[in-house]
Amino acid sequence: MSHRTVNFKGNPVPLEGPELKPGDTAPNFRLQQNAADGLGDATLDDFAGKTLLISVVPSLDTSVCAQQTRTFNQKAAQLPDNVAVLTVSMDLPFAQARFCGTEHIDRIKVLSDHRTADFGRAYGLLIAEGPLQRILARAVFVVGPDRKIKYVEYVPEITQEPNYDAALAAVA
């Protein structure tokens, strides 16, 4: 049983994995993505030398997650070229691609942890028990080019949006 929790509509749900903090080294990951030539993997190494803003959502097909993804997609246009914005969820890559096409998400990479949930465990976001089992909690991470975490927000209530301004300020 986990000792860390977040709330879903005021009710605590347990999280699996460590609570990461600024200064920690970002765990590596292998996430799946839908690409023109089929499914492919994306790892932390693929973004070497870049600052990453990693937006994590429970499911793109919910209003708050959709809004979070649209907001970061819009803000990505104002960020320098050395910043990559990722959205990570447990949604299947095909569902992510459908969402991105419908919502005109074209400035960020949308990646899936559905295969192994290793990202969720490594970043302390996996909801492993109860009715929300096997989804990711809402969070935002900023990782510097040195792979050190510069900013972390584990959003305490899953149904609320993150602090966009603080995350974007950490990218600068």
UniProtKB/TrEMBL annotation:
Q: Ranges for the Thioredoxin domain?
A: 20-172
One Gene Ontology molecular-function label: thioredoxin peroxidase activity
In residue numbers, the region (Disordered) covers 1-21
Q: What top-level branch of life does the organism fall under?
A: Bacteria
Its recorded reaction(s) are: a hydroperoxide + [thioredoxin]-dithiol = an alcohol + [thioredoxin]-disulfide + H2O
Q: Does the keyword Oxidoreductase apply?
A: yes
Broadest EC class? oxidoreductase
Query: Keywords, A to Z?
Result: Antioxidant, Disulfide bond, Oxidoreductase, Peroxidase, Redox-active center
Q: What is its EC number?
A: 1.11.1.24
* Keyword Disulfide bond on entry: yes
Show the PROSITE patterns listed in the entry: THIOREDOXIN_2, TPX
Where in the sequence is the active site?
65 (cysteine sulfenic acid (-soh) intermediate)
Per the entry, what this protein does is:
Thiol-specific peroxidase that catalyzes the reduction of hydrogen peroxide and organic hydroperoxides to water and alcohols, respectively. Plays a role in cell protection against oxidative stress by detoxifying peroxides.
Name the HAMAP family for this protein: Tpx
Subunit structure, per the record?
Homodimer.
Q: Family per UniProt? A: Belongs to the peroxiredoxin family. Tpx subfamily.
- Can you name this protein? Thiol peroxidase
Which species is listed as the source? Answer: Chthonomonas calidirosea (strain DSM 23976 / ICMP 18418 / T49)
